[in-house]
Amino acid sequence: MTSTTNIMPPTNITPTTNVTSSTSSTSSTSTPPAAASFGRVAPADWSALVSAALLGTERRTPPVAMRPGQGSAAALLDAAAVSTVRRRAALRPAPAGERPAPAPADPRPPLPPAARRRLSLLLADRGGAGGSSRRGTAPDLTELLPQWLAAADGYGYRAPEALLPELLDAARARTDLRSAALALAGPRALWLARLNDAWKFALRGIGGPAGFPLGDDPEGVRQQWEEGLFAERVALLTALRRHDPPAGLALLATTWSTERAEDRLMFLDSLREDLSAADEPFLERALSDRSRNVRATAAEFLSTLPGSAFAARMAERAHTCIGPDRTSGTTRISVEAPHECDAAMQRDGVAPKPPSGRGERSWWLGQLVEATPLDSWRERFADRAPAAIVALPVADDWRTELHDAWCRAAVRQQSADWARALLGAPGAPPQAAEVSPAGSSRDLTKLLAVLPGDERARWVAEFIAAHGLSDAFRMLGVCAVPWAEPLGRAVVDALDIARDAGSYPWSFSGVMGLAERCLDPAAADRLDMLTAVTDEPEGASPGSGGYWSEAFQRLVGTLRLRATMRAELTPPPAAPVPAGESARRTP
Amino acid sequence: MNPQGERWTTDQVLALAPGEASRKAGGKLAAPEPWSETGADEAALWGQCKGSGKQPYRTVVDLNGPAFTCSCPSRKFPCKHALGLLLLWAGGGDRAVAAGEPASWAVEWLAGRRERAGRPAGAAPGGGAGSRAPAAPEAAERRAARRMQRIGAGAVELEQRLEDLLHSGLASAGRAGGGDSPPGGSGSAGGSWDETAARMVDAQAPGLAARVRELGSVVASGADWPARLLEECALLHLLDQAFLGLDRLPTPLAATVRSRVGLTTEAAELLTGPDAATVRDRWLVLAQQDSDDGKLLTRRIFLRGERTGRMALHLSFGGPHRPLDLALPPGLVLDADLAYYPGARPLRAALGERHAPAAPGPVPPGCGIDAALTAYGDALRDDPWLDSWPVVLTDVTPIPGRDGAGWQLADADGESALPLDPRCSGRASRWQLAAISGGAPVTVFGECGHRGFLPLTVWDPTPVSL
């Protein structure tokens, strides 16, 4: 409970000063009837009453009139009661504080009612479910929020205002939701975030620098760049770079030499998305930067620009180390790793000191190959295609090292041809061991991500058909959602086989969870028959049949729910597609 | 499809949920999977929900009421199964909840309810009490007189306690450590507030006991606690004195004092007793708020009559074996009879006969901030113990608190404002209010009192509970 002083300073709530409202003045000038019937006490100043009450009537006689036979404490209570009711009855409004500027208008259409309620349910479930391995048959709503947000964003809807606080809280708690949640939440959420420190993150541009207001005024941009806080500057640079890459680079160049090393690294990193040959001179200069990390990043960027002088230098170095060797009749790859890491190599970003446990020559070689344009190998190996080059035998146990480096290069240069060649045929029996041999640091998932979507799904489907699910979790994670058909079927079949093998479903909880989120909802009907409790096969873990049935029920339930969610998100009525598109780009 | 009854919206269903956890749990069950033998007719829904046990739970919902029954052991009301079934149905699942004849296990309960509904409203629950009273009127009178005596004695004792406090000074109460006696130090300075509250319970004056317990929480709670403690002590003193002089008070004020002290009136008596006076109106549901103190679930439903303009507050209580019996989401209009509890400023009311199914209502008209404070001031003239009075505010703009300044609702003129009640520190509700407003004026319903304004519902323009 709070005193009336919260509403107005005491001077303004004394009844006598209140003459503006006829009704209130009635209630303030006439003694409230209830108080009147309990004895009339001359009005006393409230703060005098409080200090008398604090001290106690045994120490000070209160400034109140006493009725005959009444003690001073009772008289003080009488007076306080009258004063309290009077002051409460005569409350006047407080002066209004500064109003927030009105939130900018959001022209996007509101969600259809069913979708609005769905969002409310999805958000209400946030942060619920504990980490228990047995999850029952009910769908895990939290996991469905990201795809719901993406779908709603796709239609160009805006979030219901009443749900913005929950949406902001969700985005705050889960970075994976941020950009989709903030896009849906739109300008009003940013307006709210400016009023609440807990939502400052939304203004940092992490969710989408596209939302950063870029004025048409170059001088304003320049001033913001020079005077802004670090986070604002990163957002500004990212936004400008997206909008006009050369202008972004030029802006960065104006202050580059005076920035701190950590800041230079962050600013440099914001060039990553839109690298082009026009950036080469700047990156070349950055190879001489004082900071090792800046130098390394500049070298990495340059290696993705195949026509750059840097790439040519690297190719030259790599080609002197690696080449065809026909001495034994058949062509094989000979490897002569570099004997030193000279100053020029170091300037081009080659780290001289290997991590512990690695030989320095192979370490240098790996870096050279990784930064060498993959296309240059075709020429080096008599116009062979990538698959043919990969198939060549490699001399002196260099095969794993060399292929690992090519894998990294394929990822860095986004070369689908090389990724395909290095991945090989997914169904080949020793494939798992072959594509990821012992001692290799190869990341198949990253290679897969380089392949076009449908090819990727097909490759993973065949891999699962041949090798089962145990190594497939991360591969599934890079496949487009919903899973394209050969893949969905492969996963379901593999789960069915796993059940028949008699293990518990939670050995596959990762894949199950992915399947719930990623399988095409149309698969639900086919899966229905798997929800029945089957006879447990011989040697099966006890009770596994029931648990599998439960897991499949949850899978089917989740798929149906996703179908329902998708159906609820009908396209906005009568909104021509381009309008929706443009509305989406200007959140 | 339902031949006549319109299908509810999911919002309506969710508004029935007794809490966030229930909304969530109900939402999870709003899928066809766990359900079997579901069905609906124009006035009821039923279905079996697979739970953790062998037997599925049997859930029946009577849409007139609404009323719920379920074989699950939950003390939540409605339980998650009832919510899930309603959500499934409201979500448009004709496939999931098909029209049909009630299942055999649903028929009995529904028939019982429909039979009771045929009787005059209030007759069923009141029957027991009504038949007991005339059986032994003298004994009842003796009991009542004894209780009045006990309360009187309690009031005298409380007066002494308050005067002692004022005699030695509020500062000593602060030093004593907030009224809760430390271990070993109990009994000093006339005992703690909790002890005094317990004495008031013994004196059968729960209203006094609750106020005394409040005093304990005021002591040493924030900057100006002495002023607030003095206010509350003074109002408690006023109530004591009013009760001790009950004979000399006008009848309506005496009724207010009796109810404030904790003497209750039977709802059935109000609706069907010899002095029953009901008000029929189209009552717009302004807010429905639940609070749970761990033992008792209290649901407060605020209504306002379209014709009479009168505010009304319907209270219902739930507990472990006593589910809440009424759920009315804000925004509905109810053509029904209400009977106000007696008092100088009647607000609490009992719900009598309902003449038509509830239907969606309009955004209510309201007033400005001056008028809201005036309404509270007027109400205080009748009932000085009122902490607040329900009002609908129109065209007010929420101003979020910044730099130590509290939240406000600013009037359309932009100059005067009401502070938000600090009790609505439930961060979400304030920010929801701000989000819906977006810096523009909104219609808000809430309680306007000496602590400020406690917002309960905002219209966007559909009602959103805060």
Automatic annotation (TrEMBL), chain B:
Source taxon at top rank: Bacteria
Gene Ontology MF annotations: zinc ion binding
Region named Disordered: 1-38, 117-146, 171-193
Biased composition (Gly residues): 175-190
Record carries keyword Chaperone: no
Domain SWIM-type: 57-90
PROSITE patterns, per the entry: ZF_SWIM
Organism whose genome encodes this protein: Streptomyces sioyaensis
One protein family per Pfam: SWIM
Keyword annotations of the record: Metal-binding, Zinc, Zinc-finger
Name the record gives this protein: SWIM zinc finger family protein
